[in-house]
Amino acid sequence: DPAHGAALDLAGRRVVISAGGTREPLDPVRFLGNRSSGKQGVAIAEAARARGADVVLVAANLEIAEPAGCDIRHVSTALELRDAMQVAARDADVVVMAAAVADYRPAAVSQGKIKKDAGDGGLTLELVRNPDILAELGRAPHDGTLLVGFAAETEPDPERLLELARAKREAKRADLLVVNRVGWSEGFAADENRVSVIGDDGRVVTELHGSKVSVAQGILDVVASVLPAAER
Ligand code: CTP
Ligand code: CA
């Protein structure tokens, strides 16, 4: 697609992308999960590959086919995703956290199936916070690695949505933050997306809408434009 920069503008770049949604086990047969399909992250992985990058895809419970030509590392929980990202990020030029990470996991995983007659009619789950993987990557030394975060927000007001996203980008020290509004029907399994990309000065670098594939190309256009020139 000639609208999207030079064909091989990511040649030789190491791009690490997380996609999908984590699952936090409760017992051998149940988990806490979310509605992320992995479509947007996989579209970025495929597009980066097509533009010449070496792509590591850290895949959390994808509901769609895996892309060809990527080094795929399967994870399920947030803690597994964190380990895989820390390893992969070490020599990455770009890290994209597109995965929907569970903010909480059950405090204890039952080794046997939780029985419905164990309590007095109701069930209370105790949850503990998962680490913020993107914020950890942002705090760790990462010279030469561009950090791209996502933000999923249900805020209906566009200005307040941007304020939330700016605060999120700063808190996590991401270089770029891709914000999209999600809801009961928008965002997750859809083929279309509408996002704003916020830069490290808090300004909206670009607004993108269309198929998740074209949004992926637009995000990579921004990434390619802010990457330092490759050594020759
Ligand atoms: N993220 C992460 N680790 C977590 C939670 C989120 O790395 N434990 C990343 C996501 O992959 C995304 C970004 O942080 O790139 C924003 O995720 P989001 O859920 O929108 O923000 P949170 O910081 O979790 O805040 P909240 O859910 O309360 O809005
Ligand atoms: Ca969250």
Gross morphology is globular
Radius of gyration: 18 Å
Bound molecule kinds, no repeats: cytidine-5'-triphosphate, calcium ion
Percentage of residues in DSSP E strands: 25-35%
Summarize the biggest pleated sheet.
8 strands, mixed
Q: Number of helix segments?
A: 5
Strand order of the largest sheet: 5-4-1-6-9-10-11-12
What structural category arises from helix and sheet content?
Answer: alpha/beta
Mean pLDDT: 93
Structure in words:
- Keywords: Decarboxylase, Flavoprotein, FMN, Ligase, Lyase, Magnesium, Metal-binding, Multifunctional enzyme.
- Catalyzes two sequential steps in the biosynthesis of coenzyme A. In the first step cysteine is conjugated to 4'-phosphopantothenate to form 4-phosphopantothenoylcysteine. In the second step the latter compound is decarboxylated to form 4'-phosphopantotheine.
- One of its GO terms (molecular function) is metal ion binding.
- Residues 10-225 form the DNA/pantothenate metabolism flavoprotein C-terminal domain.
- The chain is of the alpha/beta class.
- The chain is built from five helices and twelve strands.
- It has helices spanning 39-50, 78-89, 133-139, 158-172, 212-226; strands at 14-20, 24-27, 30-32, 54-60, 71-75, 94-97, 104-106, 127-129, 146-153, 176-181, 192-198, 204-211.
- Strands 5-4-1-6-9-10-11-12 form an eight-stranded mixed beta sheet, with helices on both faces. Strands 2-3 form a two-stranded antiparallel sheet. Strands 7-8 form a two-stranded antiparallel sheet.
- Helix 1 crosses helix 5 (212-226).
- The longest helix is centred in the C-terminal third of the chain and has 15 residues, at 158-172.
- The protein is globular, with a radius of gyration of 18 Å.
- The chain binds cytidine-5'-triphosphate and calcium ion.
- Cytidine-5'-triphosphate is lined by residues 78, 97, 99, 101, 103, 130, 132-134, 149-152, 168.
